Amino acid sequence: xxxxxxxxxxxxxxAELASPVSDSTGQHTGLLFVIRDEKKEVVGxxxxxxxxxxxxIWQQNNKWYDELFEDIFIRIMPYxxxxxxxxxxxxxYPRPVEIFVDxxxxxxxxxxxxxxxxxxxxxxxxxxxxxxxxxxxxxKVEKDILKYLYQFHFENHAAGMYTPSMIRALFIDAxxxxxxxxxxxxxxxxxxxxxxxxxxxxxxxxxxLTTKGVRHVRNKxxxxxxxxxxxxxxxxxxxNNHGDGNVNINKSTVSNSFNVTEFNTKADELKSAIxxxxxxxxxxxxxxxxxxxxxxxPDEKNHSKIRGIIGNIISKGATVVKIAALAAxxxxxIAVAHGVPAA
Length: 343
Hints:
Layout: E1 3-8, E2 11-22, E3 29-36, E4 42-50, H1 52-60, H2 68-76, E5 81-82, H3 86-92, E6 97-102, E7 107-109, E8 114-118, H4 123-130, H5 138-155, E9 161-162, H6 163-170, H7 174-186, E10 190-192, E11 206-209, H8 211-220, H9 222-225, E12 238-241, E13 247-250, H10 260-277, H11 280-296, H12 303-316, H13 321-338
Parallel strand pairs: 1-5, 4-6, 6-8
Antiparallel strand pairs: 1-2, 2-3, 3-4, 7-8, 9-11, 10-11, 12-13
């Protein structure tokens, strides 16, 4: 399941991508992020939207691709500060705070709980404004590259990262990325995977961190030493400093024993939420599906079928934040237990 972070009252919280949503007018589609604290407890939720105008301009400028909607919010959310306290934020739940990227002045509408982020003619320009404060330099780019490769290193030790994919996910100028990759290669922090080179692609086609690069990231970057999440596209890496100089890597996809009690508790909470929000045929269909996944869940071979059922629940409950969040919780429990990505 894709994750990023968000700042609330000066503190960093995990923002977990849950499901599609619609805004209050029904005119815009967006994404729901469930916000959790360090104990993994739900603090609240955020819905993110791109205005139709923004999307249209990006399409006209050939800056649109299928995953962009998720990628842009995962990229910028760690740098957006929600101007409410944790207590106020929690009181709103299950109503979300909304983040809206539009061609408008930056502001927070307190009564509507909407944070407006000024749009631009491309996602790269928004990243330049929000992530880099309008002034991008090579040191910042090198740091982003190293953090991105640091995560990828622990996802797959045997493979190199295809550089154009990294450029697209980070929303940084390709020329600068290739230049910084060459600098990092000269410092022996990365290496080119020669056998994976793609003919005709300029610069480094595939790259990966060296052992020296991994140690450099751990020792150099404060957020890794102090235990703050490394924010990149995809599953988050949480780094816990135990005072011994070592860093533990905890992935949301690490295999773990399946907790039937925890799963059933979450399923019962989901049933209660469905009973509060639905009636008639829709209610009964969703309740039956919850009962079915409770029966299937303990057996790993049923995982793919369970994903489909939970996906249907999330889809039907997309306009009800609490139902979507609880269904996403069930999906995550299954994924962690069976050692595969939740989404």
